[in-house]
Amino acid sequence: MSLDTVAHAQANPDSKQPYAELGLKDDEYAHIKEILGRRPTSSELAMYSVMWSEHCSYKSSKVHLKQFGDKAPHSDALLVGIGENAGVVDIGQGYAVTFKIESHNHPSFIEPYQGAATGVGGIVRDILTMGARPIAVMDPLRFGPADAPDTHRVLPGIVAGIGGYGNCLGLPNLGGEIVFDETYAGNPLVNALCVGVMRHEDIKLAKAHGTGNLVVLFGAKTGGDGIGGVSVLASETFNAAKPTKRPSVQVGDPFAEKVLIECCLEIFAADLVIGIQDLGGAGLSCATSELASAGSGGMDIQLEKVPLRDPSLSPEEILMSESQERMCAIVEPSKIKHFLGICRKWDVTATVIGEVTDGTRLNITFNGDLIVDVPPRTVAHDGPVYNRPFAEPNYIKALPGSSFSVPLPTTPAEIKAAILKLMSSPNMADKSWVTSQYDKYVQGNSVLAQPEDSGMIRIDEQTNLGVAISTDANARWSYLNPYEGAKLALAESCRNIAVTGAKPLAVSNCLNFGSPEDPDVMWQFAETVRGLADACLELGLPVTGGNVSFYNQTGTVAILPTPVIAVLGVIQDVRERTPMGISRDGLELFLFGATDQNFSGSEWAYLHGELGNVAPLSDLAMEARLIELLLEGQPLFESAHDLSNGGLAASLSEMVLRHGIGANVQLESIASALLVETPGRVLVAVDPSATEAISGLAAKFNIPVTKIGVTGGAELNINGAAISITELRAAFTETFPKLFG
Amino acid sequence: MKIGVVTFPGSLDDRDAARAVERAGGIAVPLWHGSDDLKEVQAVILPGGFSYGDYLRCGAISRFAPVMKSIILAAEHGFPVLGICNGFQVLTEAHMLPGALTRNQGLHFLCTDQKLRIENNESMWTSGFEKNEEIVIPLKNGEGSFQCDDETLAMLEGEGRVVVRYLGQDPNGSRNLIAGISNARGNVVGLMPHPEHAIETLTGPSEDGLTFFTSILHQMVGR
Fold it and tell me: Residues of chain A whose pLDDT is less than 70?
């Protein structure tokens, strides 16, 4: 096949091009022709098709996401905001922390192990690109019903992939979430979070400045894997009639990434790069066009210099390949020798593939023939923007009038049965089967990990400064009311940070939705973004970045709207952190927050096939006071645990099971007290001498408080319903091994 | 007291091992796989990780590293060597210790707080423990099932060279629940669990692991 050069494109303006197969619409193709003043070459078409995909261009979400900027609260902590590979926040003592969460949903459904593994790899490179040493990962996961055959295909593979890649990188995995719901059957969600740390002065950005500076591609060689991953895979609804998309999934090599990390950190320490960008979605197309457009715009690339794993790859394929473990750096000529020397030390292949020019065009040649001549901004940033139609769905309109009922336990026998049923259900049961496949100890700084409320990492061994990270979503509430659901997810994530003693500082998000071409889904999305932006403003937390995953739907069935909200907090002394488990006999248990009667969206309702009708309304002013209370009262708390899924029943069970120390509890309105999931509640255990101080705190911050019992013994006793720890532990721990072997 | 910690490409727990050495009161010296220079250290730790990505077999490529030539030679003259997890795998691949580490019986990577019994407190790395002392330190690996032939097993047991043994539920299918062994002389010890991750209760399940590092420092002082 002859090369489709720029000259050839000019001479043959009417050649038919496969733009539709590459995921471009008619008007998008016409717009490309308008930008270039001619038809694109096949290489240019390849670049535009991946960069203008939903996944890369955020074309359906952009108009909504700008609220995160418009409504941004003032924050002194924000060092790098939305738009770079990951946001960076100041945590004090000269340290900067970067964190980000991304989806790898579609590839993980097609090829669970590699899909999940490369999801970890991609987010870790984003963090590394900022100049940071990656220090921890977390993985919120969602699956179809636990007993469904396809869940048994995808779950073990996804867990093994996350473990296989993350463990080999030497990154502690602090947890995440695992949730089962029918709507995720065929659309499992694999979200991957990474956090990294650096000194303020070490922050790196993705930009190409300085005429004559060199463009260096380093890391793994380029292969034919993952071609079109972002366009044909992540930006379309699954359709059984179409051919398999397996070749669009990338294949990961964690060893290559581990040496790339160490190599990059050594390069950063020697201050050898002007700008740096990782190669993830859209590969070289993305890296070259983004680096160039963040600089003056001019860049020349000699594509034949790209080291190939498969020599038969065409220029178009080289530009679209999403082969993993690759980075692209801009290096001054005077520093290139040093740069290449460090790469040699780590056995990392590094090749100069081009240079920054004083022009405004990204020019790519292949063996001397010009095959790409574009203004880089038009590829990287000037993609189409859609104002997609959205409208309140009919199901929302029907909710207020609907009714539902769930059985309410009253007798001791019923209470016991309810708690055992709840705690053995897949959503609530012990997740050790999963988390024991992840290394939580490596790097030696993991202070808290699953099943604690948040993950906590020590940043400085001398000062004991640390960070806490939590990810949360309640998709059932989001389905019932996406605006409130987003606010509640943020509140819960903040609460999970605060119960450990850390102060919430910044927010990242991964917004998982169905097809944006469906007005119902688009409405869910718009409401979610509005809710999250409002909530961030009200709680004074900046959004540092995020990720949108659309097209999580099979046919007409979309997933529940699932905004996963990640919050990063800072703690001055990690030795003071509050764990969730009851540590000894004779402590008093206090419940902060008020409990209502609303079972909508609760686990208990879900277990009875009900979703409910009206989601709880958030009260962020109260949540903010509760956070203040938790931080001020922290020295008093021997343990503290957020109430969320499964309500008080779940929190109590988790607290007694942690160290096998029981509790005796008395509650009024037993069924709702135990099983509703009213937001804004926290359970703490304190020494009896602190009783007065607890009342004082509650009064000061205007938060209701109730003493509900004392700790001790070998059973959880609730209003006379006695469950031995042994029996409760059996119910809690047997579920996953029974389901997954 | 200078203790070297080797970094192979893909080593992960090298910085943790160095931290443990320092906490125990020693000086940790980084050693690079590509150099045969042991920098005058008095003992060496081969840390955990996935050296060379565990490609071919765990430890199979690392055993040929230039640094290993020096270590093998020195160990023959009584130089103390501790192999943790991947380091243990390197030691068996280098035939400095007998047997092999194979895929866990459950076929999964397993990270857990593991109960162990110190069976032999006469090795250079376990001399600070009581005999039969029970400890808890993290176990984290995918290929930790210790296997050997019957003859080797009888030799290891007969000569008291089983240094640590798993207690409670069998985590991985190791023969005779063997978690760690030594060479005949007791200067080379390999174990799958990670003592360097149990040096403070803030970040580990116990402080039990620290004794491995204080043991060797006391041994060196005693010389």
Answer: 1, 228-248
Residue A248 pLDDT: 65
The whole-number pLDDT of residue B107 equals 87
Query: DSSP readout, A142-191?
Result: EES-TTSHHHHHHHHHHHHHHHHHHHHHT--B----EEE-GGGTT--EEE
Burial class (CB in 10 A: 0-12, 13-18, 19+), B223: exposed
Nearest C-alpha of chain B: how many angstroms from A225?
20
CA distance B139 to chain A (A): 9
Residue A168 has its nearest CB partner, among B15, B50, B197, at B50
Closest chain B residue by Cα to residue A458: B203
Integer CA distances (angstroms), A172 to A224, A385, A645, B89, B203, in order: 31, 38, 25, 22, 12
Strand-strand pairing, A663-665 and A705-711: antiparallel
- Predicted local confidence at residue A631, as pLDDT: 98
Q: Which of A8, A31, A74, A104 is catalytic?
A: A104
Predicted local confidence at residue A243, as pLDDT? 47
Q: Which of residues 186-215 of B touch A (CB under 8 A)?
A: 194, 196-197, 199, 202-204
Cβ of A574 within 8 Å of Cβ of B202? The answer is: yes
Q: C-alpha angle with apex A356: A351 to A357, nearest 5 degrees?
A: 140
A544/A380 Cα distance (integer angstroms)? 20
Q: B201 CB contacts (<8 Å, ≥6 apart)?
A: B207
Residues contacting residue A684 through CB under 8 Å, at least 6 positions apart = A589, A590, A592, A633, A636, A637, A639, A640, A641, A694
CB contact under 8 A, B9 and A347: yes
Strands (E), A537-614: 543-549, 553-554, 557-558, 562-571, 588-592
Whether residue B10 lies within 8 A of chain A, CB to CB, comes out as: yes
Active site residue A55: yes
Enumerate residues 6+ apart whose C-beta is below 8 A from B53: A168, A253, A254, A255, A256, A258, B10
For chain B, the average pLDDT equals: 96
Q: How many CB pairs under 8 A join A and B?
A: 86
Selected catalytic residue, list A55, A64, A106, A641: A55
**Chain B residues whose beta carbon lies within 8 Å of the beta carbon of residue A117:** none
The answer to whether residue B16 neighbours chain A at the CB level (below 8 Å) is: yes
Give the tens place of pLDDT for each residue, B146-178: 999 999 999 999 999 999 999 998 999 999 999
Tell me what pLDDT residue A69 has: 87
A303: its two tokens: 């594509």
Of B9, B109, B202, the CB nearest to A163: B109
- Quote the minimal CA–CA distance from B136 to chain A in Å: 14
Beta carbons of A531 and A567 less than 8 angstroms apart = no
Could you give the angle at the alpha carbon of A657 between the alpha carbons of A451 and B203, nearest 5°? 45
**pLDDT digit string, tens, across residues A536-566:** 999 999 999 999 999 999 888 999 999 999 9
d(CA B158, CA B153): 8
Give percent of chain A with pLDDT exceeding 70: 97
ipTM score of the complex? Answer: 0.96
Q: Which CATH class is domain B2-221?
A: alpha beta
Q: Do A443 and B196 touch (CB under 8 A)?
A: no
For the record, the structure tokens of A705 come out as 């408080």
Please provide the DSSP assignment of B45-114 as one string. EE--B-GGGG-SSTTTTGGGSHHHHHHHHHHHTT--EEEETHHHHHHHHTTSSSSEEE--TTSS-EEEEE
Residues B28-32, mean pLDDT to the nearest whole number: 98
Cα–Cα distance measured from residue A642 to residue A620, given in angstroms and rounded to the nearest whole number:
16
Radius of gyration of chain A (CA): 26
| pTM metric for this prediction | 0.94
- Chain B nearest C-alpha distance from A133 (Å): 13
Quick check: A222 and A100 in contact, CB under 8 A?
no
